[in-house]
Design a protein that fits this description.
1 helix; Porin; two-stranded antiparallel ribbon; single chain; about 10% helix
C-alpha cells in the first residue's frame, strides 16, 4: 500500500490526536464523572437532548466493513472516526484512495436514534478519480426487539444520502439515494457474537445510479477480559438495476454508486479479518483488512480500515 505525503500527514495527525485522547476517554465520556451543572451534559443527556448509549449489550463490538451501510443494531450515542486505504485493481489503473470520515449517532429515546453515516474527504492516487468531498447521509434507526437475557436485538432504519459531494471524487452524481435496512445481533457460546445486516440502496434517479441490495455479516470472539476481540466479516453486494452513468460494467461497491451499464443481476462478495480493542465501554479501536472473495472485484483490490469510537 502506498500513501501520498498529504495522506500520511493527515492520517498521522489524526492518529496521534486519537491515541493521545484514549487514555482519558473513559473518564471524559462517563456521565458520573461530569457535573450535572455542566453545559454539555445535564441529567444524563448531552445538550439536554440525547440519551447515553444502551449499555446492556456492552460485550458487542461494532462492524467495520461496508462502513456506510452495515449498521450496529444497538441504540448508541457516539462519534466514530474512520480511515480507509482502498486499493484499485491494476486493470482499472491501479493506485489507491484514502477516506477520512466521521460518523455520528445520537440516541433520542431508549429505542430511537439519529444516525449520520456518510461524510468526509477522499484523497485519490488513482487515475479514476481526484480528491474531493464525499456525499452526506443521515437518518433514523429504531430498535424493534431486545432481549437482554439472551443478548439478542433487532433494529430497522432509513437513511437518505444527499448528493453534496464532489464530482471529481465520483460523488454528487445524482439526485439522492434512500437506504432501507434491518440489522440484528446475538451472543452465542461463551463470548461469541454474530451481527447481520441487510438493506436496499434505492436511488431517486436510476439512470445515474444503480439499485443495490447488500447482506453483511460479522462474527467475533472476545478474548477473555483483555479487552481484545478477533473478528471476521463477509459482504455480499447484488446489483438490481443497470444505469447509464458509467459506460462500463463496473460496480461501485459500498463507497460509490456509478450508475454503470450492464450491472443488473451481477454480484460481488468481499471478506475481512480484523482485531478490536475495548479498554472500556466508552472506547473502541479497530483494524480490518478486506479483500474480494468473488472473482468479480469491481473497484476493490484490497482495503485497510481503521476506526476509533468514543461512545457516551
Amino acid at each position: 500500500m502506498r500513501f501520498s505525503i498529504k495522506s500520511s500527514i493527515l492520517f498521522g495527525c489524526a492518529l496521534a490526536a486519537a491515541l493521545s485522547s484514549v487514555t482519558q476517554a473513559g473518564d471524559l465520556l462517563d456521565p458520573t464523572e461530569w457535573s450535572t451543572k455542566d453545559a454539555v451534559v445535564s441529567d444524563g443527556r448531552i445538550l439536554g437532548l440525547f440519551r447515553e448509549s444502551d449499555h446492556q449489550f456492552t460485550d458487542f463490538i461494532s462492524p467495520m466493513t461496508n462502513p456506510v451501510y452495515f449498521e450496529d443494531p444497538r441504540t448508541l450515542t457516539e462519534a466514530r472516526a474512520i480511515f480507509i486505504n482502498h486499493s484499485i485493481p491494476n486493470n482499472l489503473g491501479g493506485g489507491s484512495v484514502q477516506v477520512y470520515a466521521t460518523q455520528l449517532r445520537a440516541a433520542l429515546t431508549e429505542n430511537l436514534s439519529i444516525i449520520a453515516t456518510k461524510d468526509g474527504f477522499i484523497v485519490s492516487e488513482s487515475p479514476l478519480l481526484n480528491d474531493g468531498f464525499a456525499d452526506v447521509s443521515a437518518g433514523l434507526k429504531l430498535n424493534v426487539f431486545k432481549d437482554v437475557e439472551t443478548q439478542t436485538l433487532l433494529s430497522v432504519g432509513t437513511v437518505f444520502e444527499i448528493p453534496a459531494g464532489s464530482h471529481t471524487a465520483l460523488q454528487g452524481n445524482s439526485t439522492g439515494e434512500f437506504h432501507l435496512f434491518a440489522t440484528g445481533g446475538t451472543e452465542f457460546l461463551p463470548s461469541w457474537h454474530f451481527v447481520s445486516g441487510s438493506g436496499f440502496r434505492l436511488p431517486t434517479n436510476t439512470t445515474n445510479q444503480n439499485q443495490m441490495w447488500y447482506w453483511s455479516n460479522h462474527v467475533d470472539k472476545k478474548l477473555g477480559s483483555s479487552g481484545f476481540y478477533l473478528f471476521t466479516e463477509c459482504n455480499w453486494y447484488y446489483y438490481m438495476s443497470s444505469g447509464n452513468g458509467l459506460q462500463a460494467p463496473i460496480g461501485g461497491g459500498d463507497l460509490f454508486n456509478l450508475g454503470s451499464v450492464a450491472m443488473a443481476g451481477q454480484s460481488a462478495v468481499t471478506g475481512a479479518y480484523g482485531v478490536k480493542y475495548k479498554p472500556s465501554k466508552h472506547v473502541e479501536i479497530g483494524l480490518a483488512y478486506e479483500i474480494p472473495y468473488s472473482s468479480r472485484r469491481d473497484l476493490l483490490q484490497n482495503r485497510l480500515t481503521a476506526d476509533l469510537i468514543l461512545r457516551f
